[in-house]
Amino acid sequence: MSIPSLAGAAINAPATYPVWLRTSVTLRASRLQRLRLLVQAGFFALFILAPVFDILRYDLARGHAYILGFEWHLGIDDYFAKRISAREVGWNIFLRLFLPVFASSILLVTVSWRWGRIFCGWACPHFAVVEMLNTLVRRATGKLSLWDKRLLPGQSPTRRYWLPTVLMAVGVAFLWAVAILTYAVAPAEVYGKLVSLSLTRNQSLFIVIVTTVLALEFIFARHLFCRYGCSVGLFQSLAWMMNRSALVIGFARERAAACTTCYAPGGPGDAVCETACPMRLRPRVPKRQMFSCTQCGLCIDACRTVQNQPLLGWVADEAAHTNEARIALMERVF
Ligand code: SF4
Ligand code: SF4
After folding, report:
1. Ligand approaching nearest to the C-alpha of 227
2. pTM of this prediction?
3. How does pLDDT run across 3-34, given as a tens digit for each residue?
4. Distance separating alpha carbons of residues 334 and 199, to the nearest angstrom
């Protein structure tokens, strides 16, 4: 992949409405983002429904897992009941536990070696929540995160958005807590007892604690978790970093002067690629500083809102060596 078409593009007149509105409205219309939203929604539904359809869950009461509709026994109970030998149970554990875990890890590392944290940006249910809440928090606080000191250009906090923000965070956290419980307790039991308000004390405690922790994390530390707290993300980033030819956001350095559009009077007042990034990265910096890029492509589409041909684009292989963004621009020193 390369981005030769980025050279010499015309520049749009700067828009005058707030940057978050410009990007969120335009990005929703992007075909790539619609596709990503669809994939994200599919994986989110899978995360919630996998235990319901026995696609993946462990039944604590029965002492075995379900995978793709089949019962998945390691034979540990049979071993203790002296129905199978130590050799047989060891072989079962290797074949039915270590091998699938190892194969899944290899698959994940291979995909991220080539395409980076594409799983995070396109499939991870946590990242989907991060993006949903980003929009609401922006409206409520006028900032990309609660911890930011400065408001976004032309943006002021709108307090009435706090209620939907908190409701969304608590609602999704509750949904997650119930879903996580169904990975260990039979879904029919959990949902049945939830409807009849007859959950056991431990089940209720689990749901309350997990809902509280997740809601706080969603509101206060969602970016922090994606960047530093998620081991799945960390391993993907490490694999990606080891491959210089991997897919990466490239920057048309020869047209860097066109970035003045983003800072021009009457324009967005800030780099829209940066304000659009759900991971709060600066897409024009070198790859090593984009360690947690999720390949969502939002920065590319955001750039398209101010440039007829975006200065940012995915590059790979040889182009990744030469087009990887590395430049100091405008007010930022990279
Ligand atoms: S740098 Fe671009 S592709 Fe990477 S996470 Fe940010 S917006 Fe998405
Ligand atoms: S690369 Fe970023 S700063 Fe430059 S024009 Fe595109 S959106 Fe604006």
Report:
1. 1
2. 0.83
3. 333 333 333 433 444 555 555 555 556 788 88
4. 53
